Fold:
Amino acid sequence: MEIQERSGFFMITMDTIIREGHPTLREIAKEVTFPLTEQEQQLGKDMFEFLVNSQDPIKAEELHLRGGVGLAAPQVNVSKRMIAVLVPSEQEDGEPEFAGVLYNPKIVSHSVQDACLGDGEGCLSVDRDVPGYVVRHARVTIAYQDETGAAHKIRLKNYPSIVVQHEIDHLNGVLFYDRINADNPFAIKEGVLVLE
Ligand SMILES: O=CN(O)C[C@@H](CC1CCCC1)C(=O)N1NCCC[C@H]1C(=O)Nc1ccccn1
Ligand code: NI
Structure:
C-alpha cells in the first residue's frame, strides 16, 4: 500500500476541463463501488465546488469560470459514473431547484413525451456554439447512490430533468449535439415540450 501523498490544495478550473476531441469524452465511464476511495469522495466535493464557484459572480470573474449547472467526472478526465448538479432557483435568492452529487445515476423510467430547451444547449467541454433543439425525455425517474452508498430514486421534470440527462449522457460518451437533428436542427415532432 503506497503511502497516499496528502495531495495539496486542488480546485477545478476551466483548465481542468477536457474539451471535445479528448478520447475520454467518448468513453463509457465505469461504475463506482462503495465505500468510495478518498479521491472519489474528494472529487465529488471538488466537482460540486466548481459549480458553486462558477455561479458566484465574484469567484467566476476571479477564476475565469464559465457558469455551469452540471459537471460529469469524464469532463475532468475521470472516467467514473459520478455527476454534480447545481440548478439555481428562478428567483434571485431562492433555494437551488436541484443540487447534489450523484453516483452511478441511471434513468430507470421516463415519459413518452420529449422535451428540449428553447435556447438549445451548450457544454463546458465544447468550445463552440452548436445551434439546434437537443431532444430529451420530458420527465425522468433517476436511481442513484449518494456518497455513503445509500440508494435513492427521484423524479425530475423541466430544467433539472434536462440537466441530469445532459450529465448522464457524458457518462455514456454522448455529447449534446449528438441529439440534434442533423438535417433540420430545429425540427421537432408534434408534442415535444419546448422549455423556455
Ligand atoms: O456537462 C455539463 N456541462 O457541460 C455544463 C453545462 C450543462 C448544461 C447545458 C444544458 C443543460 C445542462 C452548462 O452548465 N453550460 N453549458 C455551456 C455554457 C453555459 C452553461 C450553462 O448552462 N450555465 C448556466 C445556465 C443557467 C444558470 C447558470 N449557468
Ligand atoms: Ni456538458
Remarks:
- DSSP finds three helices and eight strands in the chain.
- Strands lie at 70-72, 82-87, 98-110, 114-117, 136-137, 140-145, 151-156, 193-195.
